[in-house]
Amino acid sequence: MHIIVTDRDGNDHTLEALEGWRVMEIIRDYGLPIKAECGGACACGTCHVYVAPEWVGRLYPASEDEIYMLDSAFEVEKNSRLSCQILFTPELDGLRVTLAPGSES
Ligand code: FES
């Protein structure tokens, strides 16, 4: 299973994904620069990603906490999510996200 992450320079990276890991952890573990300051506690907004349009409706909806925290992120779009709040499951095999501005480590 894998996810595809586009970095801020527009390069795609295919990352091996494990069930039960947060998408933020997969990105960080692979070594792509993602700040994720709070370590996944939904308390910083610096793990912000854009989800590819075809995947938006296939994700578990954002919680109120996530929506609140996204308010403090930069350049929030309709397809914005906090990657620490997306738990990887086999249904998300092939998920595509793009690292958003403000999440640089
Ligand atoms: S790592 Fe802080 S909100 Fe996701």
- How is the largest sheet built, in terms of strand order? 2-1-5-3-4
What fold name goes in the CATH topology slot? Ubiquitin-like (UB roll)
How many strands appear in the DSSP assignment? 5
The main pleated sheet reads as: 5 strands, mixed
Number of domains: 1
CATH class category: Alpha Beta
Shape, per Cα inertia axes: globular
Radius of gyration: 12 Å
In short:
This protein is an alpha+beta fold and 105 residues long.
Descriptive report:
The chain is an alpha+beta fold and 105 residues long. The protein has a single domain (2-99), classed as Beta-grasp domain (Ubiquitin-like (UB roll)). Helices cover 18% and strands 21% of the residues. The chain is built from three helices and five strands, in the order E-E-H-E-H-H-E-E. The protein has a five-stranded mixed β-sheet. The model has no long low-confidence stretch (mean pLDDT 96). The structure holds FE2/S2 (inorganic) cluster (FES). The site of FE2/S2 (inorganic) cluster (FES) has 15 residues, from loops.
